[in-house]
Design brief:
This protein is mainly beta. The protein is about 5% helix and about 45% strand. The protein has one domain: Lipocalin (Beta Barrel), CATH 2.40.128. A 10-stranded antiparallel beta barrel has the order 1-2-3-4-5-6-7-8-9-10.
């Protein structure tokens, strides 16, 4: 699954226990590059109660060839419920597959964490900010088999 992606430390701590606030600090286009791979992730600012995202990955071998893409959305778990019980969900569609939802969970770690223990992989998606960087991690629910990305703002 493509990466995901951020906030200032003070804001991150304030949001850690709030499961209804959209993570507007993720808004913008972000790039992660290693010797063999590139990842681009873009998020719209929060508007109308949702954020929309895209992710595109590629390999550097023999030029720059695309390896995958994903459409994403962060919005209410239950849009018709009262605002206090809506909660937030991260929804993803990998290469046009059916949407998979991950519900936001409260925690003590900075940033935002989404969980779906019924999904094969990933089961946990976590985004946070370290200064100007957006960090993302996907893993199983217990944190094992993790993959991490460090994104910088795209130029």
């Amino acid at each position: 699954m493509g990466a995901l992606l951020v906030l200032a430390t003070g804001a991150a701590l304030a949001l850690a226990g709030d499961t209804a606030t959209l993570p507007d600090w993720m808004a913008g286009c972000w790039v992660s590059e290693t010797e063999g791979e590139w990842v681009e992730e873009c998020w719209t600012p929060a508007r109308g109660g949702i954020m929309l995202g895209t992710n595109r990955t590629g390999k550097r071998s023999g030029g720059e060839s695309p390896a995958g893409w994903e459409m994403m959305q962060i919005g209410p778990v239950h849009p018709d419920a009262e605002p206090a019980v809506r909660g937030l969900a991260f929804r993803a569609s990998l290469r046009g597959s059916p949407w998979t939802a991950f519900e936001r969970v409260a925690g003590t770690a900075p940033g935002v964490t989404f969980l779906n223990t019924g999904h094969d992989y990933p089961q946990r998606i976590h985004y946070w900010r370290e200064g100007e960087l957006l960090k993302a991690e996907v893993s199983l629910a217990d944190g094992s088999e993790s993959m991490k990305w460090t994104f910088r703002k795209a130029e």
